[in-house]
């Protein structure tokens, strides 16, 4: 897409920006003659066709096909509370949905967020540092200015478990008495701008990735996450696991399908007790009151000490 915006307001601001984005989406279907299973991959960047200097269509197709084949052979996941390791990249959708929306001034400013009034308080495990950064060159969610004309910036939301800030648009700034953070976004001129995420991720932590898996006696390894939903007021969320494996005695074992992760944002933040060092991002489109906007989500491999896993 090649998207040009023009912003003019009654305070004398007159500015413009151009957003160029490229994305490749692949869906593969595997069949054994009795049932079908699918896998998908859809990386993107904030750039033109030079994206393919960094992303191989062949590798994207292989990734989607491997997920489809794994799920075709997989049994169903059992339900229950267990320890879960969530892989990097699109695994960051957990923070985006379960916690990110609760840190937007759109909900905080009207008292409709579980994070209201908690600035300076410990809201997460001390290993968790979460950042929203709209300035990362070439990233899917980056913009030079937000949709109210403010420069984007690096916003530390949670630092070593302490809530440091919110994502604030113009209206949220008035409601909260806080400075704007360059997070005002909208799909097009036909939507009102509201506070939204850009590139939001959990930063690398102190734990080695191999130690995270080795620490799990019995649990789930969520290699690839799917979509989900959240209620910002309560923080209650539900996510699908697109590719998952049972972990036994510190080793990744058989593949399972049909798993989902269920919980609340405040609980999962406290229960992330190990954070790895392989930070990567995944790309998505986030829908909210101001329409659909491109956002990056990300994290390294993390361990959640206990979470409800839905299955059969």
How would you explain this protein's 3D organization?
The protein is of the alpha+beta class. 16% of the residues lie in helices and 41% in strands. It has helices spanning 57-73, 93-100, 105-108, 170-176, 209-214, 265-271; strands spanning 2-8, 14-20, 22-23, 26-31, 36-41, 44-45, 75-76, 80-86, 130-133, 154-159, 162-163, 184-185, 194-195, 199-202, 218-230, 236-248, 251-257, 260-264, 272-275, 280-288, 291-299, 302-310. The protein has a six-stranded mixed sheet, covered by helices on one side. Strand 12 and strand 13 (194-195) form a beta hairpin. Helix 2 crosses helix 6 (265-271). The mean pLDDT is 95.
The tally of helices reads 6
* Helical coverage, percent range: 10-25%
SS elements, strand count: 22
Main sheet: strands, sense, barrel:
6 strands, mixed
Category from helices, strands and their pairing: alpha+beta
Element order, helices and strands? EEEEEEHEEHHEEEHEEEHEEEEHEEEE
Proportion of strand residues:
35-45%
| Spatial order of the strands forming the largest sheet | 11-10-9-14-21-20
Categorize the overall geometry: globular
């Amino acid at each position: 897409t090649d998207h040009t915006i023009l912003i003019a307001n009654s305070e004398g601001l007159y500015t413009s920006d151009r957003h160029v984005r490229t994305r490749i989406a692949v869906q593969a279907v595997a069949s054994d003659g009795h049932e079908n299973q699918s896998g998908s991959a859809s990386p993107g960047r904030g750039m033109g066709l030079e994206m393919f200097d960094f992303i191989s269509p062949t590798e994207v197709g292989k990734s989607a096909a491997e997920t489809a084949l794994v799920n075709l052979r997989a049994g169903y996941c059992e339900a229950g509370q267990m320890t879960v390791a969530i892989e990097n990249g699109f695994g960051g959708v957990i923070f985006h949905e379960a916690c990110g929306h609760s840190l937007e001034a759109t909900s905080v400013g009207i008292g409709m967020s579980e994070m209201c009034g908690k600035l300076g308080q410990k809201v997460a495990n001390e290993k968790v540092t979460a950042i929203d950064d709209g300035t990362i060159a070439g990233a899917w969610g980056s913009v030079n200015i937000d949709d109210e004309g403010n420069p984007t910036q690096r916003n530390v939301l949670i630092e070593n478990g302490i809530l440091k800030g919110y994502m604030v648009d113009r209206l949220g700034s008035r409601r909260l008495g806080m400075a704007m953070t360059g997070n005002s976004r909208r799909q097009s001129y036909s939507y009102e701008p509201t506070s939204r995420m850009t590139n939001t991720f959990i930063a690398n932590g102190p734990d080695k990735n191999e130690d995270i898996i080795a620490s799990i006696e019995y649990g789930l390894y969520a290699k690839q996450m799917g979509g989900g939903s959240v209620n910002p007021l309560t923080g209650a969320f539900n996510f699908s696991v697109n590719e998952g494996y049972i972990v036994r005695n510190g080793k990744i074992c058989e593949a399972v399908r049909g798993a989902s992760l269920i919980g609340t944002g405040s609980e999962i933040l406290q229960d992330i007790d190990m954070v790895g060092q392989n930070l990567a991002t995944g790309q998505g489109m986030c829908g909210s009151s101001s329409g659909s906007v491109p956002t990056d989500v990300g994290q390294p491999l993390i361990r959640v000490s206990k979470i409800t896993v839905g299955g059969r």
